[in-house]
Amino acid sequence: MNLLSSISRNIYPLNQKSMDAAQKKWDSLIHPKGSLGRLEEICIQLAGVYETEKFDISKKAIIAFAADHGVYDEGVAPNPQEITKLQFPNFVNGKCGVGVLSRFAGASVVAVDVGINCDEKLEGVIDRKIRKGTSNMLKGPAMTREEAVKSIEIGIEVAEEFIVNDYGIIGIGEMGISNTTASTAIISVITGQTPEEITGAGAGLSEKKISHKARVIGKAIEINDPNPTDGIEVLEKVGGFEIGAMSGVILGCAANRIPVVIDGFISYAAALIAYKINPGIKDYLIPSHNSAEPGSQVALEMLGLRPMLEMDMRLGEGSGAALAFNIIDAAIYAYNNMATFDEVGMHI
Ligand SMILES: O=C(O)c1ccc[n+]([C@@H]2O[C@H](COP(=O)([O-])O)[C@@H](O)[C@H]2O)c1
Ligand SMILES: Cc1cc2nc[nH]c2cc1C
């Protein structure tokens, strides 16, 4: 059995007993029941994930993947493809959005190249390159099925390296010029929304070019005709290597009972691929922010997720996940440090 199949067989529901115990603990703390809203929900979910109502997360990381996309040749992105290789080292030297926000949140960042279109070694970046970018999905499948499985397995392997080193929560991030095109195609196939309905500006495409991008996505779906119920096939035909690797992190974390904080639009596409492989991953996802891309709503609805932040962000990189770490930390701190009614002698 390959790694992906064995991981997928090991995903179980949340532990209800631990969630009930966490609920009971919240109810014992000096506040009106439920008044800390989603801070309470986050801790209850974490109790279900960890199978204990007693937890404290000290080590957290953003795992980011980068790759290029053959569909870039169709004029669907506002920035040159070289930005992928130029920006990715900045993830780990702390200079870019995700670098700074991760440092602020006390999280490590790892950057893994799964398909950047370059030959040179990138400083601080782990090389797990599958190929120098996907094929142009307007001319056939973006990758082979073997490459799709490989991208997911790389994500599982990287996640497990962090998990064995006691990281208790993982956020996912990415870099890849044109990857909103691949993500929109995935979300369109899996949710059934048309590309016209959900295609957006990505990193800043003009109105006129958004219509062109939607037509390219529509044509790519028509030519490749992916089966929407087969997550691996959707990834193979209209996906990207970094998207597959992000799906792998989600599957790997779920199988190891570790929560995954998802980021923006590209991570919604990755989560949908993982969801089609095993719907059980849903319980392990923690949403962060609501991406400004128009396809966000349908993707999040299918995943049953309500993001905690509405910040009009569309940077990607893992920046929203890093920001959400601060709220998750605050939730856990309140849960572990508020006094109980008994301790202060207050009874309601
Ligand atoms: O996270 C998001 O919601 C998001 C929305 C739009 C763009 N991005 C980032 O911008 C890049 C892709 O944009 P584009 O227009 O080249 O497809 C990629 O590197 C992403 O990290 C990210
Ligand atoms: C500078 C830059 C940084 C990015 N980070 C994610 N996508 C990006 C696109 C550009 C252009």
TrEMBL record:
Lineage, uppermost ranks: Bacteria, Bacillati, Bacillota, Clostridia, Peptostreptococcales
Organism this protein belongs to: Peptacetobacter hominis
Enzyme class label: transferase
Active site: 317 (proton acceptor)
EC number: 2.4.2.21
Pathway(s) where this gene product acts: Nucleoside biosynthesis; alpha-ribazole biosynthesis; alpha-ribazole from 5,6-dimethylbenzimidazole: step 1/2
Record gene name: cobT
Catalytic activity: 5,6-dimethylbenzimidazole + nicotinate beta-D-ribonucleotide = alpha-ribazole 5'-phosphate + nicotinate + H(+)
Protein's GO biological process: cobalamin biosynthetic process
Functional description taken from the UniProt entry: Catalyzes the synthesis of alpha-ribazole-5'-phosphate from nicotinate mononucleotide (NAMN) and 5,6-dimethylbenzimidazole (DMB).
Family annotation (CDD domains): DMB-PRT_CobT
Keywords of this entry: Cobalamin biosynthesis, Glycosyltransferase, Transferase
GO molecular function: nicotinate-nucleotide-dimethylbenzimidazole phosphoribosyltransferase activity
Pfam families on file: DBI_PRT
Protein name as annotated: Nicotinate-nucleotide--dimethylbenzimidazole phosphoribosyltransferase
Domain of life (superkingdom): Bacteria
Entries under InterPro entries matching the protein: Nict_dMeBzImd_PRibTrfase, Nict_dMeBzImd_PRibTrfase_bact, Nict_dMeBzImd_PRibTrfase_N, Nict_dMeBzImd_PRibTrfase_sf
PANTHER family: NICOTINATE-NUCLEOTIDE--DIMETHYLBENZIMIDAZOLE PHOSPHORIBOSYLTRANSFERASE
Record family assignment: Belongs to the CobT family.
